[in-house]
Amino acid sequence: MLARNQYGKAENRVVRIFRDTPRHAIHDLNVSTSLRGDFAAAHTAGDQSHVLPTDTQKNTVFAYAKSQGVDPIEDFALALGRHFVDDVEPVTGARIEIDEYAWERIEVDGRPHDHSFVRKGQEVRTTAVTIDGEGSDQQVFVVAGLRDLVVLKSTGSEFAGFLRDEFTTLNETHDRVMATSLSVGWRYCHAEVTWQASYDAIRAALLEQFASVHSLALQQTLYEMGRTVLERRPEVAEIRLSAPNLHHLLVDLERFGLDNRGEVFHADDRPYGLIQAAVQRDDSPAADRAWETMAGFW
Amino acid sequence: MLARNQYGKAENRVVRIFRDTPRHAIHDLNVSTSLRGDFAAAHTAGDQSHVLPTDTQKNTVFAYAKSQGVDPIEDFALALGRHFVDDVEPVTGARIEIDEYAWERIEVDGRPHDHSFVRKGQEVRTTAVTIDGEGSDQQVFVVAGLRDLVVLKSTGSEFAGFLRDEFTTLNETHDRVMATSLSVGWRYCHAEVTWQASYDAIRAALLEQFASVHSLALQQTLYEMGRTVLERRPEVAEIRLSAPNLHHLLVDLERFGLDNRGEVFHADDRPYGLIQAAVQRDDSPAADRAWETMAGFW
Amino acid sequence: MLARNQYGKAENRVVRIFRDTPRHAIHDLNVSTSLRGDFAAAHTAGDQSHVLPTDTQKNTVFAYAKSQGVDPIEDFALALGRHFVDDVEPVTGARIEIDEYAWERIEVDGRPHDHSFVRKGQEVRTTAVTIDGEGSDQQVFVVAGLRDLVVLKSTGSEFAGFLRDEFTTLNETHDRVMATSLSVGWRYCHAEVTWQASYDAIRAALLEQFASVHSLALQQTLYEMGRTVLERRPEVAEIRLSAPNLHHLLVDLERFGLDNRGEVFHADDRPYGLIQAAVQRDDSPAADRAWETMAGFW
Amino acid sequence: MLARNQYGKAENRVVRIFRDTPRHAIHDLNVSTSLRGDFAAAHTAGDQSHVLPTDTQKNTVFAYAKSQGVDPIEDFALALGRHFVDDVEPVTGARIEIDEYAWERIEVDGRPHDHSFVRKGQEVRTTAVTIDGEGSDQQVFVVAGLRDLVVLKSTGSEFAGFLRDEFTTLNETHDRVMATSLSVGWRYCHAEVTWQASYDAIRAALLEQFASVHSLALQQTLYEMGRTVLERRPEVAEIRLSAPNLHHLLVDLERFGLDNRGEVFHADDRPYGLIQAAVQRDDSPAADRAWETMAGFW
Predict the structure, then answer these.
(1) Does the predicted model carry a pTM greater than 0.95?
(2) CATH class for domain A1-137?
(3) ipTM (interface predicted TM)
(4) Which CATH number fits domain A148-298: 2.170.150.70, 3.90.850.10, 3.10.270.10, 3.30.390.30?
């Protein structure tokens, strides 16, 4: 009756300093590991003989941060996942998820400082690597992405011509503020990718499309983002986007003798629209397994 | 190239007061709706003619809170989901998720007050209803559950006999604090259930098993919880549990001439173990569709 | 040019189990210490010879949790504060702040379990003890309180007859939902108090007044709460209350052919009203020092 | 028995777009207002005739965002505060607090876009303006500042030579990671300041000092930050700094045959050191009133 199960150590907060020269570099990560395999006895009989403790997984994460490096996070996740599956007997699958927080150098007298940093604060870069099976049957899925990339355009967005029913009261608009906090994940076709370059190009494409597309709906903007990434980046098989519509409500100032032509808004908290879409290559096999347990993507 | 997609209004904060008599009742909900169907044109061409605005979904939620009631949340979710699928032409599927926050009456002079309440603060009750398809082919999945139920036992928990590798440094223990914040979801076999009674019985069983099982590992405790629910509640087809191991680290006080036999702990934040398990009836078909987009369950 | 300064260790998460009998008890605390004194050289010259490390303060908190006990938190805070001021030479003042999270026993077969607990989840109990000076001049201030006590009354609340200016659009109401999340602190006249009994009586009085007072404004309710506490509890010199007005907006359902007489509300997040008031004995000297750095009270 | 009291509308989320030309500008604010004055009757008798509703305060904030502009936030806060005190009869004092979230333009083809923005994500800029009294006796206090500026230096920080007692176990270190999330507020001598230029110069000085000072303790770094600001900016009377010591714990990798010379750290959550200091001009009168209710500063 035991169905699927996994266990691991979540949110290992690894900070890795590279200090081989006086010009240090910093990588600031949140690493979660999950192992899958033959753990039935631990559940049904309390027998831990197949269970590598989560404390050991934590130790492994920190040791690998030294011995394998952490940059880029996709390689770090692959190294960890392969280790658990290949080197630990009862483990037949692993999921490694890593968040990376960006830092930039503090400027002193116009020059970037060697060892002092300020947290950048924008989006969190993410990866989720799934390793399934051993030996020649082993499957590897790499999803990379970002979250908390908050964007807004103050014009160039409409919402009109929508379906109406007896509960519809919304007015059409041909000029509104459109804002969202992007969560995006893209699945690579394989694991032979120049990860950093791919990430940078995809992030730039997402921002560029958000800015450039004259939007008739958030759905359309998301689709154009996804389509552009697939067109430009052959290494990407599929991209999923989840975007809350962060409503900016125009405030009625006529009551106070003031006009308000798209100038003063109340940024509302809840409820918010939530748009989720996936864009996929026609010729690419689906791989839902790569996305399991990832909140927010459908 | 557009793959699956859905959209809706998330986190409608509905408070429903029943006040037909001087003894009021309160239901405090967070309702999220998502619609699925033929929305390709909205993505690829910006054509909204099939898109029922998320604002309309919000209006519907509040109107149904009046006309259909909200108690229990499973029925409210079913009513909303069926309305969207059955009554809105382009909609072929819906997912309705509801959180409920519990309140209890304030006591005045030893008697529960008629219209004054204090938020109970313990677990959040949840449901996620999925409606798939129309007419006689329509499939309905009801998952109910809870989250943020924080439990701790101060003895009766061991962790020993585990697998060791070169990164293992953990000591075995035969008496430790075990604490977790439970997220549990259970999928019903059908939708003809006395929801409140079922919820109450399952919650009680979960707490009872946590308390009573002498635990050799959190995995074992979770499995016993799940098994017990399936044994006692024939209406449940499957149950999934996600449990962070909230580490309580024994503080070394010998350095200060004090012994510490399981008395003083540091409650650590991160990292934490994370154990996820599903227990399922042998004879029950899987239904992963019911769980999609639900964070934390695997 | 250095003005006032303090330093300490914040948020020590102490869990103390009493297990002298099979019926265990649990106390779950968040303890923050701050020291004041002659620390100028640490700031101006980097000289740490007067600085007791914050790591040592942490060790002291955990050691005292064993040797002095933690129950009630006011006594624990007094013991810690007096130790730092009396026993550590350069320290001339201390502020100890403690939050306590309540737990209750899990029921199994109708009986409270000996060593299994569920977090209660309602309000957080707080104390802030200030020790100022040494020897016979030493002053001791004890503030106790609570926060996150969320209460709501579904009728018995009005808001009318208010001041109007050119920006006023609010309608008067004689029946509304009133809800708040109470933060309350009360300063004791002295430190010879039966802390637990005093806390229980004050908490009950606050809830009772919230429920019983027919409210013409949140200000009035807060004042009646404070006045009642001072009348009933001679050990209290002053009480401060901070209460967000958690707006519950009646939803217009007439648009959909439904009436809504105080039944369906949208619980709004932001903005919220914020009402802060202090009630004090006429004959009690002010003691602003006791309240410094406590967010939310004015 | 009613002592001091104030009330207002907290967290008005104002987004102001300037769109007089195709090159839009965005200001994203969180505005809280509090009024002080003759409100005793509202508390003791429920008489609202002196009470300007918090809803009106909200309306005023949004109307002024249009009519007065919002840039810089210090001027917006001054305009709001003076309006309430000067124009609303029973109001004799006001406190206006504003947070500002920074945005930057999205780059498309190497050029900053006219109307598409990405949230910058770094520190929050703050101001707290206090207006006290009317007419020629009116006092005005302007505090400006920032919070959530997260900085780290990977070397150039020591902690040694500290006081030891029986609870001290910490080792001395001459090379550690020092990290903090800065909250800083500075009080201006008067209100005739070029706010933006002053803010930019102070922010730069804080970062520069953090980077440049070889630190013997966080206290010393904070003091040098404060001293430098006072030396360079004659318009500043006083500066207060609150800095959690975000501990980065060196991970013991020798157990796994790896050395770790300041390369791999665990970023711990709690507890954390907390250092608070104020630096003030010798010849400047104290003004604690300007700082009341501001959490975190002492």
Answers:
(1) yes
(2) alpha beta
(3) 0.97
(4) 3.10.270.10
